[in-house]
Amino acid sequence: MAGHSKWANIKHRKARQDASRGKVFTKYIREIVTAAKLGGGDAASNPRLRAVVEKALSVNMTRDVINRAIQRGAGGEDNDDLKEITYEGYGVGGVAVIIETMTDNLNRTVPDIRHCFSKTDGNLGTNGSVAFLFTKRGEITFEDVSLEDQIMDIALEAGAEDIEISEDEILVITTPETFGQVQDALTAAGLKSDNAEVVMSPSTKAEITDIDQAKKIMKMIDMFEDLDDVQNVYTNVEFSEQVLAELDA
Q1: Alpha carbon distance 246, 240 (integer Å)
Q2: How many whole angstroms separate alpha carbon 178 and alpha carbon 190?
């Protein structure tokens, strides 16, 4: 669990950096449009939409922009023929990678994904080559571990599958289907999470102890996230304590 927490912290710092670039707005708008198109514009009954709206608000996207994106999706006003395509592959050190994209041009996206792998000594794989190493699940995290008993009672009552507790984090785990109702129950009880999303969670970890490999993996993730078509990047990397210290230096 400690490894999960430290990697989560790296992801959160990265997310804050991305927000400053403004490029993350485009990604969230695409996700909002698609979520509204597939599940309707009512966030109360559309967990996927509700989750991305909350993340968009967390990076200071205005309600007006969010509402326009919802209307585009729910009203069928968006003419972009966006397709959700997932790519799989390996980075250095045998690190498994899943890249979720939204694209209207596969002839652009596939070469871009392949380029990111090749520039960082990775390999684009075939469908199913690493997906078996991941499980799709909801994750709701809290940094205030003193709330353990309250969170556990409410989350399990609302349908959470499991709760993992470390020295610096409480992780509530749900199925994708129960994610929304568990999050709603926690929020209704006045328990505001530090992060909540449906993710691809790795069942096994690939430990990286070499700082050069670690830097290549971080560069690979950066390159993927810089692509306009990429929505999410998941890996099963676990950096050693020494590597984490050098990355933070």
Answers
A1: 10
A2: 19
